[in-house]
Design brief:
The chain is of the alpha+beta class. Helices cover 31% and strands 28% of the residues.
Amino acid sequence: MENENELPHAKIGWLRRVSLVWLVPLAALLVGAWMIFDTWRQQGPEVVLYLPNAEGIEVGKTTVKVLSVNVGKVSGVQLDVAEHRVRITAKLDVNARSLLNKDSQFWVVKPRVDRSGISGLSTLLSGSFIQLNPGKSSSMSNEFNMLSEPPITSLEVPGLRLSLSGRGVKVLRVGDPVLYQNFEVGRVEKADFDPSLREMNYRLFIQRPYDRLVTMNARFWVASGIQLALNSDGIKLNTGSMESMLSGGIAFGVPESMPLGEQVSDQTSFTLFADEASSLERQFERRLPYIAIFKESVRGLKPGAPVELRGLRIGTVGAVPYATPKLENKTRKNHGIPVLIYLELGRLAAGAEKESDDYWRKVIATQVRTGMVLKLRNGNLLTGALYVDVDFSGKSLQKPLESYANIAVLPTSDGGLAQIENKVIALLDKLNGLKIEGVLAQGNKTLDETGRLASDVRGLVKTLDDFAQQPQVQHLPAELQQTLSQLQVTLNTLGSTLDNYSGQSPAYGELNRALGNLNQILQEVRPVIRTLNEKPNALLFDRTQEDLQPKGAKSP
């Protein structure tokens, strides 16, 4: 009975047959997924471009081109208020996906008139378009900042790109030439100013095969048209190519005293100098500062003037005058002008830079003990430029060198210019002290007396001649007649001599005119003597201009 009341158990198992009805939705799902994937694959990438304004850009019309082939079209234009720029969205073809390297470039092609010529005239009818220049980077990106102007050179052009930075140089523009021995080998691709470092940054492109001219020892400087320099070395005139004369450019080269060095790689950084002379000074970067206090006028002494030892340059003038927060008492006492000079170790001796600064300071102190002094010399009478000359005509200085603003002070002495002025003034003072008027008056008086004496002698000769013609005298002894004849000859000779210096003779007139000219010259020289007494350097410089006085320090 119990078995009859038990319920049967259900048997659970897998359904052996699947209904074909389920295949229909599964197939539809697969087809739909494939269509979505194929549509996505055929659409291509979408890029976001940023530019300052949307001039010439139209949604659905402006195309994106590579090598004049359409690869996409602008799909949207939005305003980015936060960044004050325009955000452009463009859909590209699927084949353009590999062109979106991180260093790819985009810019708007439209009619332009600039220094390089006229371009983009074909867009007057077809409208502006966006040009894509593929990059070389292995990294990919979908966001780019568009260029405001077309690049100077394409990234596909073989060559070398360099980075330059410089302070206090002439500002150059994109497109300016890069020159090697006045031959154009490249262009300036980028120019911007770094306000944090206060310097100009440039990017250059050097075409191949000229890129091998750039080595580690190369120097770059601004070749700005015509350079005219008036300094202690004379007049220097440097000119470049016609294009650099009109707009400027960048020149480079290797100093003759240095080896070429190894070739550089892409994106190597260099320093840009203001001119070629400044670039050559780089090999003398190690230098010792000194102060020279001159008591004479420093007009004509400019920063950059040479410091020479018997015609060989060993340093450079740094500042005239050397301003400090508080002038010391010794400069106030003798009214000296402090001048900062640099002794450049590379110019002192071969291999001088191998020694320490302390070693060379001891050498300079030893030279001071042997009589080394600094003097101002006139380097050019036309320009009035001065330079500092190192001489050994001074007194021996056994005590340690004094300091000014924590910089050692080298002894100074009056230069050749001051010595010449002192000698000229002394000579003119002696001429001015001569009593020429009294001499001239006495000379005139003597000439007048000589004229009267000559007249008396002529009368005596005539009387003696008349006496000799008398018959009584003819009968005198021969010896007495001979004596009278000799006396007559002597008186005639004396009379002729006195006639030469009489008031009617040519010699008297010449002597009188010479004395008159001398008196006139002395009268004209007197204002010059008075001016030189007041201002000794007026003999060589314009006395209508006042000497520049250094500004005094402000009291704390």
